[in-house]
Amino acid sequence: xxxxxxxxxxxxxxxxxxxxxxxxxxxxxxxxxxxxxxxxxxxxxxxxxxxxxxxxxxxxxxxxxxxxxxxxxxxxxxxxxxxxxxxxxxxxxxxxxxxxxxxxxxxxxxxxxxxxxxxxxxxxxxxxxxxxxxxxxxxxxxxxxxxxxxxxxxxxxxxxxxxxxxxxxxxxxxxxxxxxxxxxxxxxxxxxxxxxxxxxxxxxxxxxxxxxxxxxxxxxxxxxxxxxxxxxxxxxxxxxxxxxxxxxx
Amino acid sequence: xxxxxxxxxxxxxxxxxxxxxxxxxxxxxxxxxxxxxxxxxxxxxxxxxxxxxxxxxxxxxxxxxxxxxxxxxxxxxxxxxxxxxxxxxxxxxxxxxxxxxxxxxxxxxxxxxxxxxxxxxxxxxxxxxxxxxxxxxxxxxxxxxxxxxxxxxxxxxxxxxxxxxxxxxxxxxxxxxxxxxxxxxxxxxxxxxxxxxxxxxxxxxxxxxxxxxxxxxxxxxxxxxxxxxxxxxxxxxxxxxxxxxxxxx
Amino acid sequence: xxxxxxxxxxxxxxxxxxxxxxxxxxxxxxxxxxxxxxxxxxxxxxxxxxxxxxxxxxxxxxxxxxxxxxxxxxxxxxxxxxxxxxxxxxxxxxxxxxxxxxxxxxxxxxxxxxxxxxxxxxxxxxxxxxxxxxxxxxxxxxxxxxxxxxxxxxxxxxxxxxxxxxxxxxxxxxxxxxxxxxxxxxxxxxxxxxxxxxxxxxxxxxxxxxxxxxxxxxxxxxxxxxxxxxxxxxxxxxxxxxxxxxxxx
Amino acid sequence: xxxxxxxxxxxxxxxxxxxxxxxxxxxxxxxxxxxxxxxxxxxxxxxxxxxxxxxxxxxxxxxxxxxxxxxxxxxxxxxxxxxxxxxxxxxxxxxxxxxxxxxxxxxxxxxxxxxxxxxxxxxxxxxxxxxxxxxxxxxxxxxxxxxxxxxxxxxxxxxxxxxxxxxxxxxxxxxxxxxxxxxxxxxxxxxxxxxxxxxxxxxxxxxxxxxxxxxxxxxxxxxxxxxxxxxxxxxxxxxxxxxxxxxxx
Lengths: 249, 249, 249, 249
Description:
The structure is a homotetramer.
Chain A: E1 19-31, H1 34-40, E2 51-63, H2 69-72, E3 78-90, E4 93-103, H3 106-115, E5 119-121, E6 124-127, E7 145-152, E8 155-167, E9 178-185, E10 195-220, E11 228-246
Parallel strand pairs in A: 4-5, 4-9
Antiparallel strand pairs in A: 1-2, 1-11, 2-3, 3-4, 6-7, 7-8, 8-10, 9-10, 10-11
């Protein structure tokens, strides 16, 4: 049988999971406006607290079935991502829903949509990198500045910057709980099948390191309402996603 | 309700259809190998004739609901496409199935997958354009050469060239019949919903012009088997797609 | 001898000229601020009239020595360009100087810099295309709207739109006269050679067709001062550039 | 005075130097064919030994005058580079000349050409990255594989892979000596000024770390002749370039 772009396999857009991730983040935590956020987050997820996060990151990702692609097809293992996430709950369980998540490659776009992320393709995502051997740059230290932005067509749906103040611990990062999503594959004609399914992303193996805490600012889509930055952070993180679990009763 | 990337709407990746297309094609008709093609075309479609086509084209496309985007968001109305199609049948109805179709924009990728095309994102598709006012180029005439190629990562999944011999008529182009597709949205976890549905794309308003006929050659994915070029053509075409119709019994 | 990127030849970034161009333009004519424009246009060119033009266009270009590249290397024959030009004079001869011109390919960037254009590389230039066979689009007619934009990193240095009112003639387009440029190749160390040379671009074979006249608006770099749109136009144009002529005494 | 793309300044393509670099390299050392290499390396540089290197790398680069751009304009501080270098000499001084060097940004292209590198713009350069927190990847260790490739239009002018065998020291990397270049800005018309100048790039602050040594293989442009891989290496490096020194007598 031929490989459909969404049916995981070696000639598909997507390898068979689980999928492993290692990422470098620049993140701003902020408050949006409750009513605006409620319009952004679909039922059955409930928004009671306007706490949000926005980030840009670079991710090295491999499928468990194809880790050697880092060497044979590096273009299939590296991408940039930018996203806005909103704190919410489902049946009393706390979590985060990402109304939008921009990525720079086909495979992260399609893999994400399949798992329940609302992914979009960015034209470009760029973010600060410090290189320890660059004679003109200092190692990260209090006062160091980081920035990033996402461009899509004539629009710049996210830009943010963070100034770090102190080294921190993983426990210094706000915890949101579970990662919620929405798997949708609508009809384009009468009599078609469709999918419309809230999910919880199945994450494991989470680890965080190199945390620096400070303050930040951001500009993003007006749909989140007026934004009030709370803090900023720079850190590395790794995790595994094995799929997602239906929340439909 | 927020706009999911696949749920047509003004802040989605996809506008609400019907969708109108105007395209400039460089096409090579060829025979592949029957057994290889049968592995490429999924049931319930049946391959009895190894006739295939490969093309590169540039498309101007607008949703019926948003034709003014040609002026306000031209990046949402122009893309390049490259594809390989295989003659096949369903319940005695003749048609064509495209095992793969590369495109250069997010919205054509996702719209196509929703309608049943096996779309993939290309890094680059390039093809011959002649400009009537360029003092170094002649208007199309017998002997004129056209070429195109598609690049994806380190691979070049399609390249073709056509030398035209004579002006032709739309009836000079091989007719394949209906356009078949496969809408798939597989599970990524137990208990999930999924879609697995053969379809016929709902096309109307077809028109063809500026036909030139000649010979061609191509290089493409080995999955089609050894290729034997039959003819080449350059032409313009327009049509409307309103969705797709389930072929599931 | 190996091919240097700037030394025209078959393995260089640039083919040997003359170079032929055929282009589709969307143009806005406007007044900037005289003092601002004088800071933008280098001596020996003199600005006495704040008349300017801004455009986006798609260009098919071939070297006289390599016209078959439209078929063999179409990626070396098509690019998009956006530019701002300022009316000016040299020794009483009227002309135009382009303080900046964004392009989408390496070869148009380097060829232009060599000839005296102040070219920059854009990430993306997008502009309206109408396709005559698209069932959802009308042929150009009074009231038709066109738009275009240029993106570079997080910036959008030019966006413009034009609404056409009537078919026109080439003589309806404001004439600027000669095209002036500045060839510069500065030192990066003591004792190096350098070039600092005003030029006139050597253009011939000019022809214009498909002219439509109307009104327009634009947003561009603040360096031109406050802009006052005068008119808009859509047209096709062709010409040949054989190099440039030094204006140094 | 307006900023010409090549005249360093805040609105130019190039910031004022010196320029600092921090880079991660995947490198293959190889022998080419002496006669082929002699055609690739221009006088006054002399090739007596067919030793070459090819690499892909990612570079974080800042101008001394604008190190804060890592935060404010990260797109102006990160690029990928691929190159082939040939051992050669000038007046008895040993060094390396790079007949071609592909890069992914405008500013590294133009800055390089100005300093004497034969830079070309790549469509894409991709290379292995390992992320220490990715649960599916191991830290670098004997047997780890790295790969990279460069795409330009329909061509893939360089691809290479390295399998590391042991941790090494900077002194384990072959030393080539000085970095030679050729600054060229040819005429495009009679009476024009031009530059044609061999140079030595002015490098300082060199440092190397994280060296791993092993074996490698490569495919590259046939102009180097038949290639015989000698060894492979993965390492990080930093240095400063302040310009280049004319070697003209």
